[in-house]
Specification:
Layout: E1 2-3, E2 6-7, E3 9-11, E4 14-17, E5 20-24, E6 28-31, E7 38-39, E8 55-60, E9 66-67, E10 80-83, H1 87-91, H2 97-100, E11 108-111, E12 114-116, E13 121-124, E14 127-131, E15 138-140, E16 147-148, E17 153-154, E18 161-163, E19 170-171, E20 176-177, E21 184-186, E22 209-211
């Protein structure tokens, strides 16, 4: 059919154009058709793909390679995710953080070779992408990551203490936002205070304690 979006196909109540899923207007158990390679907003940013959906389970095809930002609405209930590939293939999906940030930790990601465990901290290519444990009060990031990405610690209402590993080399602006209980940030000795961007903890003027040689 033709409309303002050009030539499109509708599969399982999802609008798909050239392998891109632009909008889903289904609810409940949602199956993404196996020609979809990317999930994104439409080119005019009129809406994002799943902003109007209430999802109880989601089947993701092996063909999916990338998930763009802001494609999912925040879910307040756990969901079942069925990925039609292996755990290693699921880990290779670019932008999967944009899905994982929007689901509770007690959601289940099942793959062909077992359950993919949702981590407290999602790290990709030595970059801290997100804290997925929304109920954490204290987080100690394990050794390995080198970059604390912007908005990686976002909307964590109970987080009081954050400890970064010695492997950290850089901290982005807005690394932690909307964490109203955060009062202590433990930073390794390799990071000089002057290396921390002025807006790394922009919304946390109450953060008074930085410890370098922990």
């Amino acid at each position: 059919m033709n409309n303002i979006y050009g030539d499109e196909c509708v599969f399982n109540d999802c609008i798909v154009i050239d392998g891109e899923l632009l909008h889903c207007y289904a609810n409940g158990n949602i199956v993404i058709y196996p020609i979809v390679e990317r999930i994104k907003a439409d080119e005019n940013n009129v809406y994002t793909a799943f902003q109007e959906c209430t999802i109880t389970s989601l089947e993701i095809p092996r063909s999916l390679k990338e998930i763009y930002p802001n494609t999912f609405s925040v879910q307040f209930e756990p969901i079942q995710i069925h990925y039609m590939g292996t755990k290693k293939e699921f880990e290779s999906i670019t932008g999967k953080v944009n899905l994982l940030k929007c689901i509770p930790m007690n959601s289940v990601v099942s793959c062909l070779d077992g359950v993919w465990d949702i981590p407290d901290i999602l790290v990709e290519n030595k970059i801290i992408m997100a804290c997925l444990n929304k109920t954490a009060t204290s987080i100690t990031v394990p050794e390995g990551p080198e970059i604390l990405l912007e908005y990686s610690f976002e909307d964590l209402p109970q987080l009081q203490s954050l400890t970064l590993p010695e492997s950290i080399l850089a901290i982005d602006n807005f690394a932690a936002v909307d964490c109203p209980s955060l009062t202590e940030v433990y930073i390794p000795s390799g990071i000089n205070f002057k290396q921390i961007p002025a807006k790394a903890f922009e919304s946390h003027t109450h953060v008074k304690k930085y410890i370098y040689n922990w």
